[in-house]
Amino acid sequence: MARLADYFVLVAFGPHPRGSGEGQGQILQRFPEKDWEDNPFPQGIELFCQPSGWQLCPERNPPTFFVAVLTDINSERHYCACLTFWEPAEPTQEAVCSEDAAGREEEAVEGGSGRLSPGTSGPPGQLFAPKTLVLVSRLDHVEVFRNSLGLIYTIHVEGLNVGLETVVGNLLTCIIPLAGGSQLDSVEDGVRTISLGAGDRQVIQTPLTDSLPISRCSVALLFRQLGITNVLSLFCAALTEHKVLFLSRSYQRLSDACRGLLALLFPLRYSFTYVPILPAQLLEVLSTPTPFIIGVNAAFQAETQELLDVIVADLDGGTVTVPECVQIPPLPEPLQSQTHSVLSMVLDPELELADLAFPPPTTSSSSLKMQDKELRAVFLRLFAQLLQGYRWCLHMVRIHPEPVIRFHKAAFLGQRGLVEDDFLMKVLEGMAFAGFVSERGVPYRPTDLFDELVAHEVARMRADESHPQRVLRHVKELAEQLYKNENPYPAVAMHKVQRPGEASHLRRAPRPFPRLDEGMVQWIVDQATAKMQGAPPAVKAERRTTVPSGPPMTAILERSSGLHGNSARRLEVVRNCISYVFEGKMLEAKKLLPAVLRALKGRAARGCLAQELHLHVQQNRAVLDDQQFEFVVRMMNCCLQDCTSLDEHGIAASLLPLVTAFCRKLSPGVTQFAYSCVQEHVVWSTPQFWEAMFYGDVQTHIRALYLEPAEDRDPSQGWEEPAEEERSALDVASEQRRLWPTLSREKQQELVQKEESTVFSQAIHYANRMSYLLLPLDSSKSRLLRERAGLGDLESASNSLVTSSMAGSVAESYDTESGFEDAETCDVAGAVVRFINRFVDKVCTESGVTSDHLKGLHVMVPDIVQMHIETLEAVYRESKRLPPIQKPKLLRPHLLPGEECVLDGLRVYLLPDGREEGAGGSGGGPAVLPAEGAVFLTTYRVIFTGMPTDPLVGEQVVVRSFPVAALTKEKRISVLTPVEQITQDGLHLRSCTFQLLKMAFDEEVGSEKAELFRKQLHKLRYPLDIRSTFAFTLGAGHTPSRPPRAAKDKGPSLRTLSRNLVKNAKRTMGRPHITRKKYNPPSYEHRGQPPEDQEDEISVSEELEPGTLTPTSALKPSDRMTMSSLVERACCRDYQRLGLGTLSSSLSRAKSEPFRISSVNRMYAICRSYPGLLIVPQSVQDNALQRVSRCYRQNRFPVVCWRSGRSRAVLLRSGGLHGKGVVGLFKAQNAPSPGQSQADSSSLEQEKYLQAVVSSMPRYADTSGRNTLSGFSSAHMGGHVPSPRARVTTLSNPMAASASRRTAPRGKWGSVRASGRSGGLGGDVGSRLAGRDMLGPPQANGAPPDPGFLRPHRAALYIIGDKAQLKGVRPDPLQQWELVPIEVFEARQVKTSFKKLLKACVPGCQALESGPTSFLRSLEDSEWLTQIHKLLQVSVLVVELLDSGSSVLVSLEDGWDITTQVVSLVQLLSDPFYRTLEGFRLLVEKEWLSFGHRFSHRGAHTLAGQSSGFTPVFLQFLDCVHQVHLQFPMEFEFSPFYLKFLGYHHVSRRFRTFLLDSDYERIEQGLLYEEKGERKGPQVCRSVWEYVDRLSKRTPVFYNYMYAPEDTEVLRPYSNVSNLKVWDFYTEETLAQGPPYDWELAQVSPEPPEEERPDGGAPQSRRRVVWPCYDSRPRVQPDAISRLLEELQRLETELGRPPERWKDSWDRVKAAQRLEGRPDGRGTPSSLLVSSVPHHRRSLGVYLQEGPVGSTLSLSLDSDQSSGSTTSGSRQAARRSTSTLYSQFQTAESENRSYEGTLYKKGAFMKPWKARWFVLDKTKHQLRYYDHRTDTECKGVIDLAEVEAVVPGTPTMGAPKTVDEKAFFDVKTTRRVYNFCAQDVLSAQQWVDQIQSCLSDA
């Protein structure tokens, strides 16, 4: 029995002590005045009576009622029922308030004055003060409280003749039964009728089960106010310990909402701050850091705005606001969606019927109270589903004297399949669940509805999931039970309580609420107390039972475990492998091991492994031999690597007993256990894992204590044992708890002692176990602390319950006194001691171990650790003596002559890097990676050599290497080794030659060696000086690099002269500048002092009259030597070839030549990055060049680099313009005429210079007008449309392009219109812009424009410049040149783009999505092909301009990156000479080396360039050449391999060719002119060209057999991105020998020996498997011509003749073919040529389309108009010859006809059968058909690659009548089915066989 009410309090308005505006509550009276012993008076009631504050009102409000909840220090809840009414204020109260209000009006505080000032409303002087009646109770009977307080108020207001003291006394003495009506004998015991002595009667029903919450209608109201989704959000938020705040204007609603939310959380109890109504004075509570559920009046909503982490539910508005920083995890699916749908069925039953055509008559919906219970039933089912099987994860740690229970979270999550679920994880870690375990985990206690549900109804709930009506039925059944619990006897629920009359509060009360007589009330209370003392104490009768456990748990959602399903085959493989290991069949086991390691990714296989290993342990020990031990350890490691730190599947738990059982004998008395080899796993350093293991083992032993010996079983089996037959630990505990009261005191003591010592012995056992797994074998390694965050960080994040433990102090003393000398060892030991002590503290305190025992443990732990360390030292020593496991022997790499090893092989694993083709797999062939081997560092390369770890791949050698100089990224990584499956340090090295080494160091490689490797690699990659690079040290041994001037040379050799030259140049540059204004050119590079001032006259020789200069008279001897060596340079040879002047003409100026070779820069004084000899206009004096150079960046003034042999137009190059150049002239609109001021003199010089260039044009004088290039359609060059006044040509003119589609059918890039010069400026611009109408539509593929688009009149010189420089340019009719602004990309964009390209081609890790799309997406993101497209586009524009007779000056950036790319491409496209091997070499030497492309800077060759990074400008140029090569394969003498070779070696630093940044620097280093006659015997090649020459003599690897050039051919490649191909240099991989570009290395691989061939017989050669990912295909399968040439050489050698050079043989064959072809008239090349022609070719618009329609040649870009000096006829003739050449290769199909004959073929739909001549071509894998046998043009092609099947057919309509049915057959392809009919059955069979054999060959 319990008191209905503990206290009755009367609280009234009182003035605030500090005189603030609001009053405060004053307790006028409280009854009883003394506190009850069992229940002290709660503090703060006066605040909660008026939560919004005590204020006077101008009018009388109706009485209000609500229930506030106070929680005391013992977490007991006190329900304060408050009834408030208003009485006229007393004068003192009014005075206080009016004074205060006046004061506040002066302050004018917002919101303050209106509420309380007396004059706002109502009659002045009449204020009403609140008074509150409060009932305090520990019981929650809201209606009874409302009626009782209402009765007291009614008696007072209506003046009833009843003493208030009697009523209050009766109320305080009212005793009602405790909960649990079902356990009482009669209705009277469960139902109590009470009367307070005022003629009233109330019935109080106590709930049947006090554990079930009482909700009345609060849950239903909550759903009505907020809706399903919002309530579910609040539910999840409360469970996961977020802060929840309710807002409403009604206090009762706040109480109900909080009550409803708590009712939903059942069976969990909310244990944080719970304040349904929070007073305004306590609002700061909301900023508490702990979770809460709080209600606040909506009037204070503004104060809650700043709360950043509080979820606010507005009950009045129906909204829930979740802040951004708060993440509420949702319920796990499918529970979330199921719960949602059931809730909607309960709340809105008509939703299901809304769409029915004939809805049933409306059913009456449940009452609000019933609906409330139905909603609660849904959540009860939800908890039963969530927590199903929870009792199977309880650990009984102690049974007596009180049960101690722990919950195994990890096992629960693992078995439910919810490890990843955020919601359940947070719930299980929360306080509410901890309370649930301690309350409901008890095995012997009263049970309630939830226990029944979770034990017996789970199967029903699972079965009902898909039947909504059955779910609803179950919900209603549960709701009935919940309703019955609240209203056990609905029949007797009759109340009779007087209420005040209507509007009674408005009647003027006769008097204020009277003061009650304390004595009288106290007397009534005392009487009742005395009566109660006489009665026997009421004991709560509890029916305790064993709590049912229910069925074992299942996964919440049956997920298929995907790839590693629980297939019996996998488990069989695991079992077989283990049995082989223990039977000693090691070879068999080795074969199965890879499959086992793959299978162990699956959970079932790991469990199977643990079970199988258990079978081989006898008496806790299993001694193995070395090989068995290694196998077992490896499998264990593989199992453990996928264990998370929680070990939710119990794998580590089942392996823990095994790692201390399996061992091997190292020597007499020294045994190594498996635990020393499986320590590298995170699970061992997780305290939660050890705790769960400890509690599991303790439970097993405690259970064994109480079981009969017969029932005992192996205690090591842990919690996973099935417990159907045997009694579980919980059952045993339940039985023991039932017997406990019956036992004698001694027996009880004995049991407690036994249990305590069991726990203690287990603690000692676990201290040992933990030291086994935490102390490393080599205790000197401090790796443990670094890698295992668990040990290092636990000191800060300990979850120990013991705060003032001894563990710390004991560990401290251990550290200082243990006598360890080695600090690191001490560190490891100390950390382990602290870790174990912390664990021991926690588990022993929780398990009730006595403090004496605990102290003893703390003393023992350091000794245990110390002993174990000593044991390990012996084991470590002996294990080092073991013969190492037979690891593959390290394969030595082949080195180049002069290449030396810097670091010998470090054993590593090479891991797959994301390139499928590189590792086998999808690229064909088995997986070659991961491979086990060693990495070597040499002076030249980083080399990996090894073998695949997969034994099925065979003994293939894997080689991957790249030059040290090509390294672009080096990163440390931590990876799993593929064999041992342990985490090791590794390195990730990426190179710009598209190689990647992703390596894991073997455990034998220490961190010191790995660090040394990194340092040496860095040192070699970035040497301090260029002379330390491999190209210099090659062949010179390791001599320290010395400054170039240190040694004295004998005799004036060229090197001496070159040094003198540099000296002279420096001296000249140092002279003081006298005339004109100072000008500081930007220094070219930070090497030496930049020239501050520069002279006009460079040297003495130039001060003479230029006409008198001759080599003999004017030059000093040293200068003469320099001149002669300069003349030998590539530039000079090329100038002479182009007729741009010879040396004699440059010295004794032949006036007929427009250009001359000037030696003005031979001392490199004008421009350091230019060559010594330059081509300038004849009319320009050398001393003027100095001034011109100042207008250009880096002093790179315009010089001629090429002249067209046909149109005589010249190509010039320069750096970008400075502000005061030509652009400056154009921009200075109001400036005086140029030349008047000193400052403009250099601009004037520049103008004169350009004028001189224009004057040097051969046909410039003939042009009668001006023109412009008015539009160059392009999608990529910016959308700049020139304004009508602009005199600038832009490359992009969208308006013009669209306007053109109406008129010109063939124009591509725009037209040039002439206008008379006399027409004046306005007319000229107008007429030119009108020319936009002549533009043709842009072609889709970026094809070259119609060559006739440039009309005969044009500007003499076009300047291609950067758009950014040429903004705001205005026209000037006097200039003879025109500006073409284009948008170019900068070097840094090239760098960024290349990085992305590198990552796309060599990803470094597995892509998230497989297949080609991810590669293509990455490729597109890199924008590499877009940059190639822009370069080709600009180059083709320049080619067109030059071809039409206009000269072009390319003046972009600094003139050494994009300028070089464009100028080189233009020359390559325009001049066939540069497409030969010799010509291309000349082009690179001239444009890239002599004109100062910064190879060292862009390649980051030295330490100084490290920060700038790698920028592959030259590689981009080679890629462009490769794109042109693909489109015009017959125009190039060199092969694509030649381009790859240069791409590889321009970064490799093997040759000196591509070192340094200019000729000047090369002279300074003595590189440019090497002494002749010094070489004795063969020497290492220092120049890449020399190497190419040598190699070309031996092998045709650089030669293109399809080379058949046309002398006058100008190439115009397609440049759209869709026409570009990814260069295979970026993607191909050769793992057999490494990159194939160091030819000597690739040759040394041993070829399989050929078998002897008997004379006259067919050659018998071994078949060989060629893997595309592994072998170099051109090597292993050379093309037919190379093979024949090799055969020829071999035969000549056999015959004893000296073998002829391959080139001579080839030339003879070609000459013979030409002679043979003449009588024919067609000049057909030999079949030899045809065999190597690739599948698709095009040249100059010859575009071959092969498809089902046949093969057509379309000359889409031929032009009838011509421009320049070539006549239309000759141009067309040239085109015709090209097309003939290509068609020869294309249509001569006869050689490829494997089988042919006539077949009838059924046409497409509704078409007839026709006889056709069919040809089966096995070479091209095609079935072609022709109209007649003699036809050369096929009608269509069936690609056999698309054929799926060849099947017998049936005759259809229109088929030949006379033919047998069996002669029909069908060919099914992926696109359609072809119906064929042969002439007879036999030929049909032959056709089918031939096609089948062709398919099978493929």
Descriptive account of the structure:
This protein is an alpha+beta fold. Helix content is 38%, strand content 14%. The strands form 13 sheets. Strands 25-24-23-22-28-27-26 form a seven-stranded antiparallel β-sheet. A seven-stranded antiparallel β-sheet has the order 43-42-41-40-46-45-44, covered by helices on one side. A five-stranded antiparallel β-sheet has the order 3-2-6-5-4. Helix 19 packs parallel to helix 21 and helix 46 (1458-1470) runs antiparallel to helix 47. It is elongated and about 140 Å long.
Annotate the secondary structure layout.
Elements: E1 2-3, E2 7-14, E3 24-31, H1 45-49, E4 64-71, E5 77-88, H2 91-107, H3 112-116, E6 128-137, H4 142-158, H5 164-173, E7 175-176, H6 187-190, E8 191-194, E9 202-205, H7 218-226, H8 228-239, E10 243-248, H9 251-265, E11 273-275, E12 292-297, E13 310-314, E14 319-321, H10 335-347, H11 368-386, E15 394-398, E16 404-407, H12 409-416, H13 422-429, H14 431-440, E17 444-445, H15 449-456, H16 458-464, H17 468-486, H18 518-534, E18 545-546, H19 568-583, H20 586-599, H21 603-615, E19 622-623, H22 626-641, H23 651-659, E20 662-667, E21 670-673, H24 687-706, H25 729-739, H26 745-774, H27 783-787, H28 789-793, H29 807-817, H30 823-846, H31 851-881, E22 901-910, E23 931-938, E24 941-948, E25 958-963, E26 967-976, E27 983-991, E28 996-1001, H32 1007-1021, H33 1030-1033, H34 1054-1069, H35 1117-1127, H36 1130-1138, H37 1143-1147, E29 1155-1158, E30 1174-1177, H38 1182-1189, E31 1199-1203, E32 1210-1214, H39 1222-1227, H40 1241-1255, E33 1265-1266, H41 1294-1300, E34 1315-1316, H42 1320-1330, E35 1357-1362, E36 1377-1382, H43 1387-1401, H44 1412-1422, ...
Parallel strand pairs: 10-12, 10-13, 11-12, 19-20, 32-37, 35-36, 35-37
Antiparallel strand pairs: 1-7, 2-3, 2-6, 4-5, 5-6, 8-9, 13-14, 15-16, 17-18, 20-21, 22-23, 22-28, 23-24, 24-25, 26-27, 27-28, 29-30, 31-32, 33-34, 38-39, 40-41, 40-46, 41-42, 42-43, 44-45, 45-46
Helix pairs in contact: 4-5, 5-18, 7-9, 7-11, 10-11, 11-17, 19-20, 19-21, 20-22, 21-23, 24-25, 24-26, 26-30, 26-31, 29-30, 30-31, 34-35, 38-40, 43-44, 45-46, 45-49, 46-47, 46-49, 49-50
